[in-house]
Amino acid sequence: MLLAVAAFLLGSGEDWIAAVLLLFASTFLFAFFVLPQTPLLWPTLLLWAAIVTLLLFRNRIGKIIRIGAAVTLVAVSAWYCVSYVPVQMQRALTHVSNELAPRLSLQPISDGSVPTSATPGKILVLDFFATWCSPCIGELPELERLRADLQTNRDIEFVLVGTNRGGDTPERVRALAQRRHISLPVAFDPEQRTMRAFRVNGFPTLVVIDRTGRVRLTHTGYNSSETSFCHDLNQLLQSL
Q1: What does pLDDT average to in each consecutive run of 10 residues of the chain (240 residues)?
Q2: Strands of the 107-108 sheet, one edge to the other
Q3: Last residue of a domain, one of 39, 73, 92
Q4: I want to staple 22 with a disulfide (CB 3.0 to 4.6 A). Which of 7, 94, 99, 102 is the partner?
Q5: CA distance 234 to 110
Q6: What is the largest CA-CA distance in the chain?
Q7: Which helix (H) or strand (E) holds 207?
Q8: Do 39 and 86 share a domain, yes or no?
């Protein structure tokens, strides 16, 4: 909305030029780079078209209609950003399955015991992360609290998994864990074999392996607005 208003204020009276340039460029970039990865965001294009159309014909409609349309667009946009997108993204990035877990190829890089394979009779939670990933760092305190809540469950194990993607090294991953005072076990996937085996494409990604060695949940991404995710994950782990 801000981009659209700015474009029309700078249009020097040539509204249709501003409309074509703004809508074409935004639509092309969004459709080419974003929609292939997240097709559920297609309503964004409709909102953009509606905003630009309202601005383009703002001088040809009555004041009351113009104000009503503007208020409606603001309300719809707010609902779309606050309610629709977070819920749909969570559904799209959370996958429940029951397939046999692939073999892990991990190197322990933290002190103490670091699980590097799924142990029969135990639940293993893998968190693939990167030192340069802000959502990964934001998620770490949540995982620490979750592990603390489950500390009496000795059969539930957590492992943070760093990889060499983006230039990460075991030293950088270890340094981040120490700087952030992370007590979770940390391992490294040097050639991304484990990451590819689990079909992990983004960070952070949580993978839950049950007591029989089967992948039960894969969740990509972290958003602090997902207030119920850790609670739901806690319930899932205790139910396995």
Answers
A1: 65 62 79 79 88 78 86 91 80 82 93 90 96 92 91 92 95 94 94 93 93 93 72 86
A2: 94-100, 214-220, 205-209, 123-129, 156-163, 186-189, 107-108
A3: 92
A4: 7
A5: 24
A6: 71
A7: strand 205-209
A8: yes
Query: b vs e for 193-217, b when ≥16 Cβ sit within 10 Å of the residue's Cβ?
Result: ebbeebebeebbbbbbbbbebebbb
Residues 159 and 72 in one domain: no
Residues 169 and 71 in one domain: no
The verdict on 192 and 85 lying in the same domain is no
* pLDDT (0 to 100) of residue 210: 94
Q: What is the CATH number of the domain that holds 234?
A: 3.40.30.10
Which domain-ending residue is among 30, 63, 92? Answer: 92
Contact at 8 Å (CB) between 189 and 126? no
Q: Which is nearest to 163 in space by CA: 138, 127, 137, 217?
A: 127
> What is the domain extent for residue 126?
101-239
Q: Does 35 lie in the same domain as 111?
A: no
| Other Cβ atoms within 10 Å of 25 Cβ, number | 12
Query: Which residue reads 């770490």 in tokens?
Result: 140
Tokens in use for 231? Answer: 């609670």
Q: What is the pLDDT of residue 11?
A: 58
CB 226 within 8 A of CB 142: no
Sign of the CA dihedral with 84 first, then 87, 89, and 91 last: negative
Domain count, the chain: 2
